[in-house]
Amino acid sequence: MKVIKQLKMITIMFLLFIVSTPIFAQTGVEDGDGLASVVKIMVAVTAFLIAVILWLVLVNSEKGEKSVDSKSSIFSSLNFETSIEDEQSILLDHDFDGIRELNNKIPPWFLMTFYASMIFAVIYIFKYHILFDGEGDYQTYEYTEEVRMASLELEAVAAESGAVIDENTVTVLDDATSLANGKVTYDKHCVACHLSKGEGLVGPNFTDDYWIHGNKINDLYRIIKVGVPAKGMISWQSQLDPVAMQEVASYILTMRGTNPPNQKDAEGDLYE
User: Fold this and answer.
1) Where are the alpha helices (DSSP H) in 87-235?
2) Cα–Cα distance between 148 and 155 in angstroms, integer?
3) Which helix (H) or strand (E) holds 36?
4) What is 49-78 written as a DSSP string?
5) Could you give the CA distance from residue 169 to residue 158 in angstroms, rounded to a whole number?
6) pLDDT > 70: what percent of the chain?
7) In whole angstroms, what is the distance from residue 211 CA to residue 235 CA?
8) What predicted TM-score, i.e. pTM, was given to this entire model?
């Protein structure tokens, strides 16, 4: 029976060692995200702690409760539970109204959980408060990094397609298809603030020669892209792709000089 228990213990330890070792190895050789490495380390540590708990269970099973049947021995060992027959040995001297207290040991699973939380706390402190190489709040830093990586990916895709459109490279489109697409976008997103003919309502008038942020295609594209939050103009770069912003900016320029009725008063600087 003792040999069987020892074989069980060796088997469990071996299996958990196989599971945890590749995780440690992979964490050591990869150059990936630091947070992912921390997670892998935590998984490996958890596997190691499980192995230790099971080892304690098996060792305690060999030393202790031989009067406990096989169905409850694992549970008893996991909790360092003393059999009813041996409870007299752990009774404390004091009593209250005939009620006696047992000096039971702290269950190993509880201790291991407590130790695991301490290990996690140490890793967390070192990762986020000592070794942290970002600036400011970590969530803000992580968001900024994700936006930066997304921008790089977008530039790479645009470079492969041969068309990188931004406020520096945008040009005026004058073909019928592009202007028609620009009108569709304008009618869907811009009419509420600038009205259907560009005469202006909450937003400025597009039909006169006065412009607040400039009247070049680059100026229009930039405002559509980043917005003017202080004036209620939102950024559209998350909803419109660069081509759509170029098309709607080109369409807006066609409104200049159309002189529709009920125009909004002039705002901004005069551009001849």
Assistant:
1) 108-125, 138-161, 176-189, 191-194, 217-226
2) 11
3) helix 34-63
4) HHHHHHHHHHHHHHHS-TTS-HHHHHHHHH
5) 12
6) 68
7) 19
8) 0.45
DSSP-derived 3-state class of residue 207: coil
223 contact partners, CB below 8 Å, separation of at least 6: 213, 233
Q: Return the number of other C-beta atoms located less than 10 Å from residue 40's C-beta.
A: 20
∠ CA 21-111-7, rounded to 5°: 50
Q: Read off the pLDDT of residues 191-217 as tens digits, 9 standing for 90 and up.
A: 999 999 999 998 899 999 999 998 899
The pLDDT assigned to 32 comes to: 45
Q: What gap in Å lies between CA 92 and CA 109, rounded to an integer?
A: 24
Residue appearing with tokens 């400025």: 204
Separation CA 133–CA 127 (nearest Å): 9
At 91, which helix (H) or strand (E)?
A: strand 91-96
